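Q: I'm writing up a methods section and want to include an example of the input and output format. Could you take the sequence below and give the corresponding predicted structure tokens, formatted cleanly so I can copy it straight into the document?
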Amino acid sequence: MDETTLLHHEIVGDNPELPWMVFIHGAGGSIRTWKFQTDAFAPHYRLLMLDLRDHGLSKGILPEFPAYDFDIVAEDILKVLDHLGIEKAHFISLSIGSVILQKIDMLRPELVDRMVMAGAIFDGSWVMHMFVHSARVLNHILPFQAIYWMFSFIVLPRRNHRMSRWIFRRQSRRLSQLEYLKWVELYKPFFKLVKDVMSRHVAKPSLVVMGDQDHIFFKAAQQFAEVHRNVRLSVIENCGHVCSIEAPELFNELVLKFLKGTDFPQRVTATPVPMSWSELKALQQPGG
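A: Here is the clean output for your methods example:
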């Protein structure tokens, strides 16, 4: 298959006896979103890391579209899995990746083993409508990097969220203004899909991991876990929206226990790290 039709992807591990684990990052992220998970999961799984269309190194993916929907984004991922001959895998998603993962499970349920959704977004409330509408209005006034900077503070407002803000701002620089506007269009089908997700039967054992400081998305994720019998919720206290970055050791431990079918706590407490600017600067290195 022509590489220009495939998302950029990286495989960690070559043991064919190990089960696959597929990672789906959020909007504005990249493969590097998962830098704190690789070492923890690699001994147990073959890892498939993906850059979504326009993100990271997934540039110029064909065919081109004037705007995106969840079918397009999900099919991009499925093409890579089919190309690699992956017939079943565990999936780990972050933020809007949780909705993309649900779409994949709708399209190809036989492909999905267990699902893990960190900082999950299942919010169809008026607050989310206002959030999205504000972003659309601001698109006509401000460059997208300014909008991204502003909304990163809204979603991740605390000092101990600083590293999460910094990582996502840095990764989002790979997006162009045109690419960003195509991704903004993804929110047109978002609310209908979220409604379908909330009402459908989730047959797979699933784990939702949320930070208790995720003030925008926590309640909807909690409701998602309550209405689906096969979905369990685990909360990391003192964490915001990107708990896989803010408390990676706790997050990794919860996920591994869930995937192995062992007991894991419904609530754990992280020690928040108010990262200094000097520590953030130290991260500015290849692969950081």
